[in-house]
Amino acid sequence: MNLRNNLKRRLHDSTHAERVALAARLSYGGNPVHKRNPGDFKLTPPAAPRPNKTLCDAADIFRISVARQLLRDGVMKGLTSPWSGDAYPKHIWAVSANGVALEAKLDDAAVGRYHGYPLLSDDPFRAVVLKAW
């Protein structure tokens, strides 16, 4: 098992109204370490790419509009980590059109901005996300 896998992750039980409110106020910014081809994300590729980072390219996500929609879809399907009130969940999960399980991580809690990446094939939570999707 990969040591980067967080075995404490779990899905949060939220109401439809909570999901609608959250989906309306979050945003997606991306992160250049997870992009080989930045598409329309307006990201500058890192000078020294980190080989241990998973790439969104494998999930065929090259448009920021697709990433934003997947983030909202994950919220609406209830695929979030625990959160309450006007706070943001640390993680939101989704599945790309070609079946790749994705994890979005909160970058900026003040504005609810996330970046995402594919889950590793040996990550046990990957099966949870695929089943729930």
Would you give an account of this structure?
- With 133 residues, the chain is an alpha+beta fold.
- The chain has one domain (16-132).
- 23% of the residues lie in helices and 16% in strands.
- It has helices spanning 16-25, 64-76, 125-132, and strands spanning 27-28, 91-95, 101-108, 113-118.
- The protein has a four-stranded mixed beta sheet.
- Strand 2 (91-95) and strand 3 (101-108) form a beta hairpin.
- The longest helix is centred in the middle third of the chain and has 13 residues, at 64-76.
Intertermini distance: 23 Å
Radius of gyration computed on alpha carbons: 14 Å
| Tertiary shape | globular
By secondary-structure content and strand pairing, the structural class works out as: alpha+beta
Low-confidence stretches: none
How many beta-strand segments? 4
Could you describe the largest sheet, including whether it forms a barrel?
Answer: 4 strands, mixed
User: In percent, how much strand structure appears in the residues?
Assistant: 15-25%
Contiguous helical run count: 3
Query: Averaged pLDDT, please?
Result: 83
Spell the H/E element sequence. HEHEEEH
